[in-house]
Design goal:
Number of strands: 21
Radius of gyration: 34 Å
Helix content: under 10%
Largest sheet: 4 strands, antiparallel
Strand content: 35-45%
Order of helices and strands: EEEEEEEEEEEEEEHEEEEEEE
Length: 338
């Protein structure tokens, strides 16, 4: 007689069974005789609420079949059937898994995939293996796996969805570009090419003072990686202070000057509030918060020589720029909303 011992962990979360006790089950193979008219099974729950069921397959032909199980609760109501694919073989000894194979996307045929070595054949095995993905392109793919038993029979081919991506250690920032007024599009602003990053992974370059347009107060910048992908365009507010002897004082780079005595934003990152510690000779200053697209999303007057608490709970998660202007100088910092 051919028998099959099958373990099922059955979970029913519908309204029908949520508050009831499972009392009985029935099963059928391939064809449903009707609710309550199939082979009955009495159930005893294990400690983990799973049920071990003995299924008689003596009258079932060899090959693959569909096994269905439904359960009845304490009010006599039946659940929807749960389906499981089974294989019936004409042997008293359960076949052992001896080898396996895998392939990606397209089936090369049985026995023609990449081999998976099974060192200890058994009826059930748990095997870790390394699938070689070097020949796959970047993007989504399907990984297929199947096993073969000691009778020469192949099992069902299962698959998983995978994604091939470039790891961060192979993708590098190679260039940046910046502009002050209008955006003419990617690759059309002033470009700076990086040969290597600094020790802390940052990049640094100078912008000549004479390249800053008159009355400009915002620097826009974005970076390009080794795959040709561009980052979002970031911005930084600034102010330019005049000098009577600029050619001597500013030397080569003529740096942008910010003279606010103290400007601190904390905590950073923040979830609900940020504190702005601002000290200046002037009593008050204007505060503006910009998103990554340069749009002003918050404006208010803050008090100098005091810690001002700003509610950011309604902002979406991301990076923002905060600017302080006391009428004489302007200072910009960035913060992250979690």
């Amino acid at each position: 007689m051919k028998t099959l011992l099958t373990m099922f962990c059955i979970f029913f979360t519908g309204t029908l069974l949520r508050s009831q006790t499972i009392k009985q089950a029935e099963y059928f193979i391939d064809k449903d005789q009707g609710v309550g008219k199939n082979t009955k099974l009495n159930l005893t729950a294990s400690a983990d609420s799973s049920y071990q069921l003995n299924i008689d397959v003596s009258g079932v032909s060899e090959g693959f079949h569909k096994l269905y199980i439904r359960v009845k609760d304490s009010k006599g109501k039946w659940s929807l059937p749960v389906r499981k694919t089974i294989q019936v073989t004409n042997t008293f000894n359960q076949a052992q898994i001896t080898k396996g194979e895998y392939f990606f996307d397209k089936d090369p045929g049985y026995g023609k995939g990449k081999p998976i070595t099974v060192s200890s054949p058994d009826t059930i095995i748990e095997k870790n293996f390394a699938a070689i993905t070097s020949a796959l392109g970047i993007g989504h793919h399907k990984l297929y796996i199947r096993c073969k038993d000691d009778n020469g029979n192949w099992g069902i081919t299962s698959h998983r969805n995978i994604e091939i991506i470039k790891t961060q250690d192979t993708v590098k920032i190679v260039a940046a570009e910046y502009f002050f007024t209008s955006d003419k599009g990617y690759n059309h602003a002033t470009r700076k090419v990086f040969s290597d990053s600094l020790a802390d992974g940052k990049f640094k370059f100078k912008i000549p003072y004479n390249k800053i347009p008159a009355n400009a107060d915002t620097l826009f910048i974005r970076t390009e990686d080794s795959l040709g992908n561009w980052s979002l365009t970031g911005l930084a507010k600034f102010s330019v202070q005049s000098f009577t002897n600029a050619s001597t004082t500013l030397e080569n780079d003529n740096s942008i000057v910010n003279n606010v005595e103290t400007f601190t934003v904390f905590p950073n990152p923040a979830s609900h509030n940020i504190n702005v510690d601002f000290k200046s000779k002037n009593a008050n200053a204007s505060l503006q918060i910009f998103d990554m697209n340069g749009k002003i999303i918050l404006e208010k007057i803050i008090i100098s020589s005091a810690i001002n608490t700003i509610d950011i709970s309604k902002l979406i998660a991301g990076s923002y720029t905060i600017t302080i202007n006391d009428g004489q100088t302007q200072r910009t910092e960035k913060f992250i909303k979690q």
